[in-house]
Design goal:
The complex is a heterodimer of chains A (about 350) and B (about 600).
Chain A (H helix, E strand, L loop, with lengths): L18 H16 L6 E5 L14 E4 L5 H11 L4 E7 H7 L1 H10 L4 E6 L34 H7 L4 E6 L3 H13 L4 E6 L11 H4 L1 H7 E4 L6 E2 L5 E7 L6 E7 L16 H8 L19 E8 L5 H15 L5 H6 L4 E2 L1
Parallel strand pairs in A: 1-2, 1-3, 3-4, 4-6, 5-6, 7-11
Antiparallel strand pairs in A: 5-11, 8-9, 9-10
Chain B lengths: L1 H13 L3 E7 L16 E7 L9 E6 L2 H9 L17 E10 L5 H6 L7 H4 L7 E5 L1 H8 L7 H6 L1 H12 L4 H11 L7 H17 L21 E6 H16 L3 E5 L6 H8 L6 E5 L3 H13 L3 E6 L1 H17 L3 E7 L16 H6 L8 E4 L6 H15 L2 E7 H5 L1 E5 L46 E3 L14 H16 L10 E3 L5 E6 L3 H11 L2 E5 L1 E3 L5 H6 L3 E6 L4 H9 L6 E4 L8 H9 L4
Parallel strand pairs in B: 3-4, 4-5, 7-8, 7-9, 9-10, 10-12, 11-12, 16-17, 16-19, 19-20
Antiparallel strand pairs in B: 1-2, 6-13, 11-18, 15-17
Helix pairs in contact in B: 1-7, 1-8, 7-9, 8-9, 10-11, 10-15, 12-13, 18-21
The chains are: A alpha/beta (about 350), B alpha/beta (about 600).
């Protein structure tokens, strides 16, 4: 199928230069690559810039209320597991007002594909800090800098026993498309953290990895079954060691030809290493006052975790089917016939 | 005690008696037994032409000293010097009071805050009351002395002795009662024999020792106005759940409930979660908001979607109900009202959510509001809520309350074929390829297409939409047009609902007006006053003849369990009308006597 088959007739109204344009195009490409007909796809969103996405897709779409996209999407998918359901959300919609629904859709492992656009700012309300803004971040609602500790989304996902987590970058189209296709292929709640730039209110928030010159040195695209090698010259690799005093495992950078270089296993059920990988380089995004980093670890992009587990929507339908198969009464009249009654 | 009560009401329904029940229990699950705050009661009226659980009891079973005090003093149980009083006592002065004498030790009396060792004298129980002392605990132990049960399990059977005794008192057949017990304990067969033994011993105790009271005999409802058919007893919450099940099957829709536990609505979710045999899908959501939002998702995907809650939950769902109004999706919201505001009185009844249901949303946000008026017709109005939602693409809020939800009534079991047709608002095929969510039929109701249907893809939303194209619009005239279109859509539903019927003496110049669960009490009051009654089940829109009916009466008294919410609404809907109000806000259903006194100008 062609990406154009997934475009709606609506003019795309993201700000010129906004990272959401790229995500929108990537999504249309990914949907074409996946090849599921538009009428079998539902795209659900909450409120925010990212939540405008359904209007630009020629699928079924529902732009709901702030924070509740996850709950509405859970209802769509659970009642109709045969549909492909996407959820579009942002760092405010997903992690602040919709935080409860976010962790519970992950916990239940509802088979949703969730694109969480993280620009570390509230854009549609014109520039307030978000739950992913680094501590000390100056915004309209924090003129003297925030005093709050931010979330690292990957930790929430793993803490809620997530089965799929990927991270991608608006300016990296191939990785974004790959992550979206992988999210669809994964049976369960797939979270794709899309790092997007807000050109108006938080320009350059991801420059550390988004700038073309720096990206190869500051990020690594993880691929299942491939060695973890990065750098402009592909000369660096990642290895893990355990601190002999504290027994805390940590990731370190070694030479690419070092035999200790890790091979990425996204299917490993144990989330320990996935967590370490997902946290690499995140301290840069948690505190604006502390930009002196102890490590030289790259930010991990690509599919970090992709493990199998029963999905909620299938389990719910299966339980009903099993009980119906065994039950004698299947209709209302058959049900009432079983009642103790008195005839007049 | 709740078990004894529900068994006794089921037994009477099977025997063909009309019933009305009022379970009344504390909010705590295991409230301290033997204390005044821990008394759990179950009130039942049975016979023919039963409209309410009754004002004052003919028979009281007091399982301990605290229960005896609460029944004797009513709401005055906490007054240190209070004694039996015709006004406040829960039984009348010729009642039979069965008391467990094993539960009147000094320690029991102290726990229940008695000051003397003679509770009957201290409470000033008149001599006309027939006190029947029965050593329930001793007799139960005696009945099970040959069993191998431990003492704790034996004591749990004490209620069955009381049950047997009441069966004797009302001359009810033991074989039916035994059958009922077998059914009740079919999942715990080990309990059938001991419970049956204790119950039969209780019955025989009454018969053999010829308790010095007269048996009471009920006439079966043979010559009452009950229609032919099969009857059973049903609690309001269960009736509500079954109404949804019937509607889904009739409409050919898959039933979906998104809900979060909240007293007193939770039994609706319990019942539906157990009805997977009926293809019901239940999501116990992470919160009230997710409950309604998962339902909205299911409605968007083409299901008959419902959410059940009580007042605090309805507050939390407000924004999402607004979304369903804006997105014009069918949605059934069930509000089992309880005492409020805030956490309020979670296990008590009240009619205080009416204005919230009507107006508690941002923007111009009309929804249909219905109210059930008996435990049995919770079935009919749940069914009706589904019909109106599916045929008019709108949220419908169904109001019940603690009294209806937990109370039981005799229910005539309908066949699906005899229930009204339900025709969901489906989309005409000629709109394929050019569908948009703003397209309406001649009634002003938009069409419903959902994911999976090829050629009808569209974007729905909580944003205002263009009246022609269905896409986002902030145009000023368009917004006004859309506000009026949504308003009109709800108002035209008045064409689809029955006219308001006047009950009682329609020719009287006095009209009692009520809505929802007070019907039984107001009906009984109207009978006694020989006046007319207009009881509303359709709140928004109102029946078309509402103004005409009201204007025909000189004196109109709106009676409700709040400070006058329906009266305020009626004044707005029927301009210039003069209404008197009778209001109680005590967490309890009306007492018929107090309504009658008010109308007659007698001080309560």
């Amino acid at each position: 199928m062609e990406a154009s088959e997934f475009k709606s007739d609506q003019y795309v109204r993201f700000c010129p230069g906004c990272g959401d344009h790229a995500i929108c195009m990537a999504l249309q490409k990914a949907m074409a690559q996946i090849g599921i007909a538009p009428h079998n796809v539902a795209v659900i969103s909450g409120i925010g810039c990212s939540s405008r996405m359904p209007h630009y897709l020629n699928t079924y779409g529902f732009n709901t209320i702030h924070g509740r996209g996850g709950a509405v999407a859970t209802g769509v998918k659970t009642s109709h597991p045969e549909l492909t359901v996407w959820q579009m959300s942002g760092d405010g919609d997903c992690l602040a007002i919709g935080g409860n629904h976010f962790i519970h859709e992950i916990r239940r492992n509802v088979d949703l594909n969730v694109c969480m656009f993280n620009n570390r700012i509230y854009g549609l309300t014109k520039g307030q800090y978000s739950p992913t803004s680094p501590k000390g971040f100056v915004s309209k609602s924090s003129p003297f800098g925030t005093v709050e500790r931010p979330f690292i989304p990957a930790e929430l996902v793993l803490g809620a026993r997530g089965t799929f987590f990927a991270r991608t970058l608006d300016v990296d189209m191939p990785t974004t498309v790959d992550c979206m296709v992988a999210a669809q292929q994964h049976k369960g709640c797939s979270i794709v953290e899309c790092l997007v730039n807000c050109v108006i209110f938080n320009n350059g928030t991801h420059a550390w990895i988004a700038d073309r010159e720096q990206r190869a040195e500051h990020s690594i695209v993880l691929k299942h079954g491939e060695k973890m090698i990065f750098g402009a010259n592909k000369d660096k690799g990642l290895a893990v060691e355990i601190d002999p005093q504290t027994f805390v495992p940590r990731i370190m950078v070694v030479a690419a030809d070092d035999p200790r270089v890790l091979t990425h296993d996204a299917h490993q059920q144990d989330p320990t290493l996935h967590r370490l990988l997902a946290l690499m380089g995140q301290e840069r995004f948690t505190d604006v006052s502390d930009q002196t980093f102890a490590t030289e670890l790259p930010v991990a992009l690509g599919v970090i975790r992709d493990v199998e587990a029963e999905t909620y929507d299938v389990a719910v339908s299966q339980q009903i089917a099993n009980i119906r198969e065994k039950s004698k009464a299947k209709t209302f009249d058959e049900l009432t016939a079983t009642l103790e009654s008195w005839q007049r | 005690m709740q078990l004894t009560g529900s068994l006794f009401s089921s037994l009477n329904a099977i025997l063909g008696h009309e019933i009305s029940t009022l379970p009344d229990f504390p909010a705590e699950i295991r409230a301290p037994q033997g204390t005044l705050g821990g008394v759990s009661g179950f009130q039942i009226e049975l016979g023919s032409e039963v409209y309410t659980p009754g004002d004052k009891a003919d028979v009281i079973v007091a399982m301990n000293a605290a229960a005896l005090k609460v029944c004797t003093l009513g709401s005055h149980f906490n007054h240190p010097q209070a004694q039996f009083d015709d006004q406040f006592s829960l039984y009348h002065r010729h009642a039979i009071v069965i008391v467990d004498t094993d539960s009147l030790s000094d320690k029991d009396l102290e726990k229940a805050q008695y000051h003397t060792s003679n509770p009957f004298e201290e409470l000033g129980i008149p001599e006309s009351v027939q006190i029947v002392p029965v050593a329930l605990t001793t007799l139960t132990k005696e009945a099970l002395k040959d069993s191998e049960m431990d003492n704790k399990s034996i004591l749990k059977c004490r209620n069955m002795f009381a049950f047997g005794l009441i069966c004797w008192l009302f001359d009810e057949p033991m074989d039916e009662a035994i059958h009922l017990l077998e059914d009740k304990f079919k999942k715990k067969p080990a309990l059938i024999a001991p419970n049956t033994k204790v119950m039969v011993d209780g019955y025989n105790y009454g018969q053999n020792l010829a308790l010095s009271v007269n048996q009471l005999r009920l006439d079966p409802s043979g010559d009452s106005q009950l229609a032919a058919g099969r009857y059973t007893s049903i609690a309001g919450n269960k009736a509500t759940a079954w109404g949804l099940i019937a509607a889904a099957e009739k409409a050919g829709k898959h039933l979906f409930l998104g809900s979060y536990p909240i007293t007193p609505a939770t039994d609706i979710m319990h019942e539906l979660a157990a009805r997977k045999d009926m293809n019901v899908m239940v999501v116990q959501a992470e919160d009230e908001i997710a409950g309604v939002c998962t339902a909205i998702g299911a409605a968007f995907a083409g299901d008959l979607a419902c959410t059940s809650t009580s007042g605090p939950g309805l507050s939390l769902k407000s924004e999402a109900v607004g979304l369903a109004v804006m997105a014009e999706l069918p949605l059934v919201v069930i509000d089992v009202q309880r005492g409020g505001p805030s956490t309020g009185l979670p296990t008590k009844t009240e009619q205080t959510d009416l204005l919230q249901a009507l107006y508690g949303r941002n923007g111009e946000c009309p929804a249909v509001v219905l109210a059930a008026s008996s435990s049995a017709n919770c079935f009919d109005y749940a069914y009706e809520a589904c019909r109106l939602a599916l045929e008019n693409m709108t949220p419908v809020i169904l109001m019940t309350d603690t009294y209806l939800a937990n109370g039981t009534a005799l229910w005539r079991i309908p066949q699906l074929a005899e229930l009204p047709a339900i025709k969901p608002q489906s989309v005409p095929e000629d709109l394929k390829g050019r569908f948009n969510p703003a397209l309406r039929d001649e009634r002003g109701v938009r069409y419903w297409s959902f994911p999976g249907m090829e050629g009808y893809q569209h974007r729905n939303m909580g944003l205002e939409r263009d009246a022609r194209k269905g896409t986002i619009s902030t145009n000023p005239e368009n917004h006004e047009q859309m506000v009026l279109a949504r308003k009109h859509k709800i108002e035209q539903i008045a064409d689809q609902i029955p006219a308001l019927q006047v009950q009682g003496n329609a020719a009287s110049d006095t009209l009692l007006v009520g809505w929802g669960s007070t019907e039984g009490h107001l009906h009984a009051a109207a009978n006694e006053l020989n006046c007319a009654l207009a009881q509303f089940n359709y709140i928004h829109p109102l029946p078309k003849n509402t103004a005409e009916v009201l204007r025909a009466y000189k004196r109109i008294i709106v009676c409700e369990l709040n400070t006058g919410q329906f009266a305020a609404y009626l004044r707005a809907q029927v301009p210039g009308i003069e209404l008197e109000q009778y209001n109680e806000i005590q967490g309890q259903p009306f007492a018929v006597e107090r309504i009658v006194n008010f109308v007659r100008g007698i001080k309560n």
